Amino acid sequence: MLFYQKHLVKFTIAFLICLTLLPSLTKADGPKDNIPDQVRRIPGLGVEVPAAQRQQLEQGLAKLKASLDQLKKNKDARIKALIPDVEIYHRAVRCALAYQEFFHEREIGTGLNLLKQGQERADQLLKGEAPWTRQTGLVVRGYISKIDQTVQPYGLVIPDNYTFSDKSDYRCDLWFHGRGERLSEVNFINQQQRSRGQYTPADTIVLHPYGRYSNAFKFAGEIDVLEALEATKQNYRIDDDRVSVRGFSMGGAACWQFAVHYADRWFAANPGAGFSETPLFLKVFQEEKLKPTWYEKKLWQMYDCPGYALNLFQCPTVAYSGEIDKQKQAADVMELALEKVGIDMVHIIGPDTAHKIHPDSKIIIEEKMDSLARVGRQRVPATIHLVAYTLKYNRMAWVTLDAMQEEWKQAQIDARLLSGNRVEVKTENVTAFTLKMAAGESPLDMTQPVTVQVNGMKLEAPRPMSDRSWEVSFHKSGDGWQVGPATYEPGQLVKKHNLQGPIDDAFMDSFIFVSPSGTCASPTVDKWVKSEMQHAVVHWRQQFRGDARVMKDVEITDKEIASSNLVLWGDPQSNQLIKKIAAKLPIQWTADSIIVGDKQFPADHHAPVLIFPNPLNPEKYVVLNSGFTYREYAYLNNARQVPMLPDWAIIDLRTPAGSQYPGKVVDANFFDEFWRLK
């Protein structure tokens, strides 16, 4: 850590000197966006649509909706699967018109044109035809997201030589776009139908995810990338061993985080500019005076990349920066982090170049990426390094982190395949893990016993099966290790992958806002609940471009409990589901008090927000009184878009909700690894 801090000081001094030479660059995203009480709206309001054009748009929307309704009655599974390719046009224009998101007069004409294109696809699909599915070049398609059941668009560049009847698989590059405060669905679709982007390698499908707008592909934006990639794999022949991640500016930031979090999925990563962590970037780039709470510092580790640098052992990385680009800072920080773990980073630098990709650098980058693509990713590398701060990102090739001693503190697993059917594993801050190789992947001798040495302790493991698959779990017991998964008392809750918090994790999977059918015991709480729920609904659409599903507490059935995280608004008096589960939550909420361990808070002007395994279905979350936790102030800079609250918090409602917090946070913490109060 000392090495990292020492080099960061040197870097900061040098970087500040560089900034004095670039006065024109320091204006954007500068101090004017550091005032929480003066936050500009993002996205800003667009132009007023003239009455005649509004009528044209409404008529086009009505006609396309009628066609969509007709298509949805079709029982042909092939037709149903293609409806999202039509629906993206309708939703894009509908949202732009309803929420005043035509940001320039010319975009109104774009909207009319998109409606024509959507209607053309609808008419074709009504006849059982879908020519766009066999189109090369620029293609825009859609899928239905598991998160909120809204249709989301994604762009593709299909190589001209792609053959739809062949069986050969193609390389696929994911390209993450830069920040765009006016990147509505209308503008994204229009752009993807006009521009091939920065790179179009030969024999390569390029996937351009929307990422649900401008969030640096975090949270729902992260899931959008994974869902768009899966949709692409369903529709086109993708070689799983030749998929890469690439991006520039905000897209470069996305590339860094996808590279370190999912390092085993890509044959290479090619980040350019952007940011790779929160605190130093905001201090230097944004000139912001940071005053984070202790838990905010911990939560930075969800998306800050330097601490995960060792994971890039599994992912060949070719970084790019312009020589005089202030966002060169991102790669410089990662170069120091990689040096700390013994890796020398390849850093292509565009000479005398600001915030763009130098043409000579492009040639060098493409040569390296082509070489890496020919090799492809290693499915079963002999050596694995996995670093994690949360069980959310817990897998690397054949190693899975199952449980941690303490989340938000660095955990590490180093595993090596040795000769003589031996495996060596070293761990830190780990209490359970699994080694697993799929059928045909195990290089171990299936006729001989396997010895796994964990932190110096030798253990006998099962042999590989006849299909060359192999799986064995280990758990910590006292000061030693035992073969087999960890066991718990019946009903014991434990943090695990995708059930580990914090609050924001509930919005990375299917969720439903559950509104109260009654009135809260306190008028102050009742007013706050209504305001915060409305805020959550509005900002989910504005910032994550979805329509939050909202149901009354009395409408929730076993189906919703089984399938979705439930976000419950209200108190035990107003919301029947909160009343039903209140006694099983670690924070007690009575008519008079909110009780957290030995602390009590008056219930007339306090409210709890929390995330917890749903007592009615512990495989899903329940959330009390919170949407995603970063607010308007964070919209101004993508590096701020990180979790702002841990697993639970108590809010004093006498302080009004603002651009950073839903009120005054008077207490907050994480639950322990067994979902208990610390």
From TrEMBL:
Any idea where the Peptidase S9 prolyl oligopeptidase catalytic domain is?
A: 224-363
Stretch forming the signal peptide: 1-28
Domain of life according to the entry = Bacteria
A Pfam family of this chain: Peptidase_S9
List UniProt keywords, sorted A-Z. Answer: Coiled coil, Signal
Coiled coil ranges (UniProt) are: 54-81
Q: Which InterPro entries match?
A: AB_hydrolase_fold, Peptidase_S9_cat, Plant_Biomass_Hydrol_Est
Q: Does the keyword Nucleus apply?
A: no
Listed PANTHER family: BLL1128 PROTEIN, UNNAMED PRODUCT-RELATED
By what name is this protein known?
A: Peptidase S9 prolyl oligopeptidase catalytic domain-containing protein
Question: Whose protein is this, by species?
Answer: Gimesia maris
